Amino acid sequence: MRDVSHETPRTDARVATNWAQEGLVTSTTLHTGTCGGVFASPDGAGSWSAASIGLPPGTDVRGLAIDPMTPATLYAGTNGGVFKSTNGGANWAAINAGLASVFTDQADS
To answer: Among 5, 7, 24, 106, which residue's CB has the most CB atoms within a 10 Å radius?
Structure first.
């Protein structure tokens, strides 16, 4: 799985984009992880809506990954552990079983 999250140059938000790279991903929806959860934009950042159902209130999303073979599957690394969505961010569930610590931080590039 390719991690396509990166920090935007103008804000502290991290953005994961479903780009059509190598013909694997065909969605044009943008997802951003912020200190207020996950947000999605179907129109190239023209408008945003919350996509955080299932994430605890106050969740700080520190990284997002999109499964290139199944673009509706997203993973969020947060201050409360790792969460997975199988429907493009509409709903999230914790997937922390077996982790020694649920603290995650953005990996150095």
So the answer is: 5
pLDDT at residue number 54? 94
User: pTM of the predicted model, to two decimals?
Assistant: 0.69
Domain range for 36: 5-94
Q: What's the confidence (pLDDT) of residue 106?
A: 55
Which tokens sit at 54? 């299932």
Give the chain's residues under pLDDT 70.
1-27, 101-109
The total number of structural domains that make up the chain = 1
Determine, yes or no, domain membership for 103: no
Residues 6+ apart with CB under 8 A from 4: 16, 17, 18, 19, 21, 64, 65, 66
* Structural domain contains residue 80: yes
Q: How far apart are the C-alpha atoms of 59 and 51, rounded to whole Å?
A: 12
- Give the Cα separation of 12 and 88 in Å (integer): 22
